[in-house]
Amino acid sequence: MTTTRTTFLALALALSLGTAATAHAHASFEQDEVASESSFNAVLQIPHGCDGKATTEVQVKLPEGFVFAKPQPKAGWELEIIKGDYRKSYDNHGKAVTSGPLEIRWKNGNLSDDYYDTFVINGKISGFDKETQLAFPVTQLCGASDKVVWDQIAAEGQSAHALEHPAPTITVTPAQAGGHHHDDMAGMTGMAGMADAPVKAGSLEISGGAVKAMLPGAKVGGGGFVVKNDGSEEDTLVSVESPAAGRVELHEMTMQNDVMKMRKLDGGIAVPAGETVKLESGGLHLMFMDVKKPFAEGDSIPVTLTFEKAGKVDYTLPVGNAAGGAHKHN
Q1: C-alpha angle with apex 44: 60 to 138, nearest 5 degrees?
Q2: 29-50 core/surface letters (b: 16 or more CB in 10 A; e: else)
Q3: Which interval of the chain is the signal sequence (predicted)?
Q4: CA-CA distance, 180 to 183, in Å (whole number)?
Q5: Which of left, alpha, beta for 178 (phi over 0: left; psi -120 to 50: alpha)?
Q6: I want to staple 209 with a disulfide (CB 3.0 to 4.6 A). Which of 69, 195, 295, 308 is the partner?
Q7: Measured between alpha carbons, how far is 302 from 318 in angstroms, rounded to an integer?
């Protein structure tokens, strides 16, 4: 099998749970049952290090039938996606797909043994017509020489609790008859209809706002909106404030030598005359830091936008899946 590797520097959304109250003694998933032909957020829980040492790398092997995988970047960790051929073909909105991610690795991080964290992979469960147990072998590295391998699979009739290092598993149930399952990642675009009515500020029009729902305990969130400049002069988004967060930063993600990097834009974001600029996941976007209460779907997050020429304008961002990709167009 031929594999290819793509490496990203994941200086992006941090996804961290602040309490270990529900942690297991071994690596496991928050949700352990899902219907076939459904999208699934595999939220892997890492409850401790290696004999007290900090975790520096987490490797997850993806089983056949968990396809179209997309990992959640984590602040301070490099993200490596190992791709290769599936054993069979899978349908992706009418297109036959025969290859994709086979293993995900978060690398060069530092998760102290005193803390608990999660590592998230979104994908689709496909191709199962009867109840099936899917195992995701995990290797947890702590420095150059220490590691814990969670790869044991219980035999028929055996309890996973009897194993010393059980692999994280999920139970796949047959697809629901007539059911329709939305791909969670599909919600990363087309959020304009969720926001309030467009807001005017001088020659600028703000619309299409959205922020992404957060897991309990998370402190960093992301989101954005669309700003259209109908005037004859360029304006600049100087800053954003929100009572829902300690601070809001303007960020940009770019690809540099096959490495995805995120940087803070201290100089603001330009909105050229006659153009539209979209702030969304994967490019220009907002980062909500020190969030006071994790954003939940259905919430509304108030923000105050400050532009160099148009001045201050209040706007509200609905909580859902953040829009993905960033671009400008005339």
Answers
A1: 30
A2: beeeebebbbbbbbbbbbbbbb
A3: 1-25
A4: 10
A5: left
A6: 195
A7: 9
Secondary structure class of 188 (helix, strand, coil): helix
Closest CA to 121 of 111, 110, 134, 133: 134
What sign does the CA torsion over 330, 240, 281, 318 have?
negative
Whether residue 238 contacts residue 201, with contact meaning beta carbons closer than 8 Å, is answered with no
- In the chain the first and final C-alpha atoms are separated, in Å, by 44
What is the value of pTM for the model shown?
0.55
pLDDT in tens, the chain (330 residues): 555 555 544 444 433 333 333 334 688 888 888 999 998 889 999 989 998 999 999 999 999 999 999 998 888 889 999 999 999 999 988 899 999 999 999 999 999 999 889 999 999 999 999 999 999 999 999 998 899 999 998 887 666 667 888 999 999 998 865 444 444 333 333 333 344 578 998 999 999 998 888 887 788 888 899 999 999 999 999 999 999 999 999 988 776 655 556 788 999 999 999 999 999 877 899 989 989 899 988 889 999 999 999 999 999 999 974 333 333 333
CA distances from 304 to 5, 99, 239, 310, 313 (A): 41, 44, 8, 12, 6
* CATH code, residues 189-329: 2.60.40.1890
Domain boundaries, the chain: 4-181, 189-329
- Return the C-alpha torsion angle 70, 20, 169, 131, nearest 10: -100
CATH fold match for the domains 4-181 and 189-329: yes
Q: What is the bridge-based pairing of β-strands 259-264 and 245-256? A: antiparallel
Top-tier CATH class for 4-181 = mainly beta
Q: What residue spans of the chain are helical by DSSP H? A: none
Q: Do the strands 33-35 and 169-173 form a parallel or antiparallel pair, or are they unpaired? A: parallel
